[in-house]
Amino acid sequence: MNTNIYLQLSTGQSPAECQIFAQFVLHKILREAQSAGIAAEILDKTDSKHGILSATFMLNGAGAEHLAQRWLGTLQWVCNSPIRPKHPRKNWYIGVFRLPQIPILPDDGSIHFETCRAGGKGGQHVNKTDSAVRATHLATGISVRVESERSQHTNKKRARELLAIKLAAQHSAALAQHASHAHAQLYQVERGNPVRVFKNADFREQ
After folding, report:
1. Residue 194 and residue 76 in contact, taking contact as beta carbons nearer than 8 Å
2. What's the CA angle centered on 154, arms 149 and 158, to 5 degrees?
């Protein structure tokens, strides 16, 4: 099974020229993915007047890793500003960063279920069967307990849903922290060492 690859394209709140460049890069990556038979999905995108400020997207397929590696790092666009003709700056930079994997909950041994007797008030049937369920995600240690239903099967299903919600929340926090670090990296990037360079208004690659 191919692993999903999550990438973030960021301008680091840079000028409009970088936002134009970022929009070109996103479209180019998506076109390359389509041509190579790689599934690509935009998960989040922040548009701006001139292009995009950032985008988070997912790649999946046999060539996804190779495609991602070709774009990771700092990208440079060498061009006179298309919106500020008298601006002296000609070098514009954006970054593509890899994000942490999103936790998934496959129906295998990744979740440990324990059944126990439901406690507390809940009617004459609640305490007579081991219908309560504690589910633990083994990789993270996150656990939930569900005893809202009399059916053990239903409680297991609900426990799996609650675990997925908790893992998604944890992942969102990780993404926020990672994105903050990525933006900081972009400001400190070695401008002389971009992984790819494009020139002029037609974005011809050097």
Report:
1. yes
2. 90
